[in-house]
Fold:
Amino acid sequence: MKTIIKNISQIIQTERKNTLFVYGKNMQKLNVINDGFIEISNGIITNFGNMSNWNGIEDWNNIKIIDAEGGSVFPSYCDSHTHLVFAETREKEFVDRIKGLSYQQIAKQGGGILNSARKLEKLSEEELYDKAKKNINKIIETGTGAVEIKSGYGLSTDSEIKMLRVIKKLKQTSDITIKSTFLGAHAIPEKYESNRNQYINLIINEMLPIIADENLADFIDVFCEKNYFTVEETIKILNAGKKYKLQAKTHVNQFNAIGGVKASVDSGALSVDHLEILMKEDIISLKESKCMPTALPSCSFFLGLPYSPVRELINNSLPVAIASDYNPGSSPSGNMNFILSLACIKLKMTPEEAINAATINSAYAMGVEKDLGSIDIGKRANLFITKEIPNYDYLPYSFGENLIRTKILNGKVQK
Ligand code: NIG
Ligand code: FE
Structure:
């Protein structure tokens, strides 16, 4: 089956095929084709360009024509950091924060991650899958075509495995590309508070072997932060993951810089995420690596935290990715259009930088840059068509407006 998209005002983010990621000044560059067409066969982009270069149709059998009606086409967003498998939303904590409690105070009182873990324990795998599937459908609706999903609301062997099995099932039943991350080290469960080593040993000796055996994860993550996991514990857990070929993608520098960036980079991490706090030595570590610094601006927005100083990263010739951090506690939205607006407004990224950060760079941050993150021949046809917009700046500018008209995943229009 061949599909042709015609009448495209602009095709955004092309000719990135052999690019791992873009960094520094190159983040300013975005390739655009005016008055374009795109051809898709069996879910793969087979041709694209300006209408004047279109060869027309030789065989009218098995052809589907999509009229973009003067809209623009973007590669689907790659959301390289989410926790979208969860049991319940946490709006009570949201109200508590409005009344003056901090995220850390709420966590100390048994809210936060431990609250989510208590709720998740009670759900069956099927119930959890049904809830997560709804979240997947929501992010497809807002233009996401690849998503990384973490465990970490289980915090026991049974519940962590339950979460990861749900993610595996989502992979099998969705057109969206999914990568799975084991985040057993998201918090120390209450019953191990006085013996944290026992929990860390459980992660290493009990959870990881099952995960490897059932092929349940692509990556491993640790929340390296005061009151969560120390640098030494982080290194120990990441090393254990490495033995099972799980590359690291870590939570670092959300509230405090305690050395998590260097520890992650030294462990060969693919990305370091959050970075609300950034030290000179973090930049030095990153410059010696191919690790993708990833900002999560909606977490800063929602919790009222400082925003990651990404300009410093870009000025130091580093790349930046952006992701939603979709989770019930610190970012209850997976809408990447809003992340794009926040990147421009709060991180002071230009639209070109923000679009690169949410496509090719975030694709790299979840290991899918060969297949996704740009509109190129041979890449997967995960795209969205906008309503008529004057230019691509309008997408982040017009925050809160739904500009996406058609979503295409694996070449198929999503209903
Ligand atoms: O990335 N920082 C750690 N984990 C999540 C929040 C988890 C939660 O509050 O439920 C984050 O922000
Ligand atoms: Fe997170």
